Amino acid sequence: MKSGHILARRNVHERQVIACLRGGLTFELRDIPDAKDAFSNLADMAQRRGAVIFARESPFVGDAEIEILTRIAAAQRLGRRAPSHGGGMECDALLRCATVLREAGIWLPLAASAGGSRRQPERGALARHRFAKGEAVRARALSLARSRQVASTEEFAAVGVSRQYVSQLCKNGYLERVRYGWYRAAPVSDRGFAADRYARA
């Protein structure tokens, strides 16, 4: 087990979120009515897709739990720009947890993924930042596509998604090209949290 997977080495906010995913509820979240349901729903959804959520008393944190931290951190950065409709069940669950954390004043670091040690090479931090930024752009693109029958490249550009990125989303199976300049969301796949990480959309 790598040292980065020891729970005590994660920062306090990451440990709070891990506790919530494992069925606990931290002091800061007890006054927020939706908190327990939001994290319980996300954990259930992750487990149905094959993700492993460790027991509440485990001193370790798993790869799937770290992946969920990264996705919630990316969802927090979407802020008020995040569309509330058409984002898919997984995206909605992540945004719901991100909103609950914002209401409690808890912000996850963008560098939640990877080794997790406190002293990491700058190159690793940059890669994690780019990954989280890509997650946010992909979420915007998919939210737009799912809220319409078809969307044009101009509509994607209006929400900050370039033509090249739309093309990449098509190659990775997230979008389907209907005709030149027009795209629609591909059917939701059964990829789990961990497998989805490697699709660099």
TrEMBL record:
Record domain AbiEi antitoxin N-terminal: where: 141-184
Pfam entry (one): AbiEi_4
Name listed for the protein in its UniProt record: AbiEi antitoxin N-terminal domain-containing protein
Native source species: Sphingobium baderi
